[in-house]
Amino acid sequence: MTDARDEQGVLLPDEQRITKLGNFLRKTSLDELPQCWNILKGDMSFIGPRPLLVEYLDLYSEEERKRHLVKPGMTGLAQMNGRNAISWQEKFIWDIRYVQGLSIKQDIHILIRTIKKVLFVEDIARDGYATTPPFEGSKK
Questions:
Q1: Is 129's pLDDT higher than 50?
Q2: Which of 30, 35, 73, 84 satisfies CB 3.0 to 4.6 Å to 47 for a cystine?
Q3: Which pTM does this prediction carry?
Q4: Which domain holds residue 50?
Q5: 47: enclosing H helix or E strand
């Protein structure tokens, strides 16, 4: 992906910035493979809520903070139920549901469904964007 901007300096939409190689890596989820190092180090799990930017920490509601009760993962309920095609609020609902229902059975179910999502390239983008818009917070 490039950092291309319009005349006013506004970042262009993903479809105008993403390279062919970047598009292939995103569609096949190969861009996720470097996270395996974090799993081997013990900083992440294979399954759990996706890690988010540190800048978002102060933006979480008390309920949303519950996602931090478990290690972050490469895949989780939110990815299985929409990936980038769902809103931030929906992602947090799925993340919290994962934490509340923590079990090996749930992890196996997520793993199987995630493999299907990757193989059939489902739920990659929302409104033509390959990435989720920045989280602006939901604390009231």
A1: no
A2: 73
A3: 0.74
A4: 34-119
A5: strand 45-47
